[in-house]
Amino acid sequence: MASYEYSLAHPHNNSRKSYPISARMGEQETKMPPNDSLYGHRKRLREKFVKSGLKGFHDYEIIELLLTLGTPRKDCKQQAREAIKRFKTLRGVLEATPEELQHIDGIGSGSAFGIKLVQEVAREFLKERIINKPIYKSSQEIFDYLYHSMRDLKKEVFKVIYLNSQNQIIEIDDLFAGTINSGVIPPREVIEGAIKHNATSLIFVHNHPSGNPQSSENDRELTRDLVYAASIMRIKVLDHIIIGNNTYFSFAGEGLIDEYELDFINLKAKGVREAKRRLYRAKLSSLKPY
Prior knowledge:
The protein is built from 10 helices and 8 strands. By secondary structure, it is α+β, with helices and mostly antiparallel strands. The protein has helices spanning about 35-50, 60-70, 75-85, 90-95, 100, 110-130, 140-150, 185-195, 215-230, 255-285; strands spanning about 1-10, 15-25, 25-30, 155-165, 170-175, 200-205, 235-245, 250. The protein has 3 domains: about 1-35, no CATH class; about 35-125, no CATH class; about 140-275, Cytidine Deaminase, domain 2, CATH 3.40.140. Helix 2 crosses helix 3 (about 75-85) and helix 6 packs antiparallel against helix 7.
């Protein structure tokens, strides 16, 4: 993009004031002289952001800053306030679809694109922070990333995080969306995914749209079944995290993963003992005289 300047002189004043002209795709689009109060307001917002980041900003001011990227010559304050009013919170605006955003008078496709771009860049940034990092040392970063992507979902979504032998993330897959229980998450699909990604350990994550992350009976049954299935294949389940409203429930943190693993070991040992008893009885029966 090339930029130029032109000058306007008042017919009764020798002072001159310059305004920019932008040239795009071989065509020049003249920017009209900005409204002084609007220009000053935006300048103050930008200087405040450069100095202190988003600290002290109202949600609508953050949205206003984002909207100015797509509409640099238009007052965006009213649209920003309307967006917050309609979607309730900053995160609600960021999670809105482009179509929903464009239902607000004054927000066009360019502004909607800018908002969604910022959201996806933030999501990718948080994902990059957790890739190739040990889970046990960065569980908060895992939560931060997953919370950003799952906090406003209207349905429960079940994710599987596949990890290598160094507990580094290989891939994150969405396995199911809907009401989650032990009957809708087939352990076979989880194990097939682990084999496909050559994973040695797993983390399960799902959200509670109600905002309450406490585990239900279905959650515990599902986690137990998945731990059992993974243990058969000698794959380690590191955790099952339930995302709530700015908080989470960790099965590992509550000691439940260890409990399920111990239950499986005991069941396996019991099965071995029972098999040995049956074999012993069979041998005794074969030695009895006819």
